[in-house]
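Entry 12.
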Amino acid sequence: MGIALKIELIFKIYKMTTVITPIRKTEIAKKSNELSKIKTVIFHLYPGIFITLGFIVLAPFFMRYGFPPQFGSLIAIAVVAVPLLLLHLRSVKKQGGKDRITDINGLTNKLPASRLILYSLGLVVFAFVIWGATQPLDAIITKKKLSWLPSWYTVQDFSGYTKDKIMITLILNLTLNGFLAPYVEELYFRGYLLARMQSFGKYAFAVNTILFSLYHLWQPYVYLTLILSLMPMMWLVWKTKDLRLAILTHSLLNLVGALLAFGLLNK
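Predicted 3D structure (tokens):
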């Protein structure tokens, strides 16, 4: 083989490696951002276990001081859920060499503001329609399937509690579930988990919806409502890849629910 032919062959091999290497690096990067199915299930459900344990301890404790069980669940979210999810995200940030927790977010597309608001309002209206339609079914499920739980575990109203204790609970609900909790939960469950559920293919949004609903172990009586009302939101967030849609919709749902509760209290 002549020297010129050898040089040409070496040059061709070099060109092939420079083309293949970036492709392989991209594939490796995608794999590193993908969670296995087992990890996906565990990461969705384990926070709910700890929150539920906190609820079981805190709700009876605060009930002794005249607060409704819902107050105990809110405290559990504040002292268990939010710190736990942030610690997990912080660990992922550290492992991935990110500067900020928000850098973990894999849903970074930006919808136009008008479309973002329109989608969010539509999802909120749909969710409340489903909530109203499924209330009778939730009541039947609670009575037929959850009667083995302590009565305070499935309480969904404030009957028998003083107005001042209810007001404190509603104010905490408005601030915590209206702003802080939705942001942290959506960053964790959508920005982190949903964005790394490629192994579930086109059904990732549905799996995310079901697992997120089951995560609410301290509220088993609303599983049906959560799955049906949140499925469109998860699909749209999955399609648009805009985490802001999830955060805005989640916050609006909780805020509207909290304000409605205030309105009913003042009647």
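Annotation: Residues 105-265 form one domain. The helical segments are 3-32, 37-63, 69-95, 113-145, 163-193, 204-215, 223-240, 243-265.
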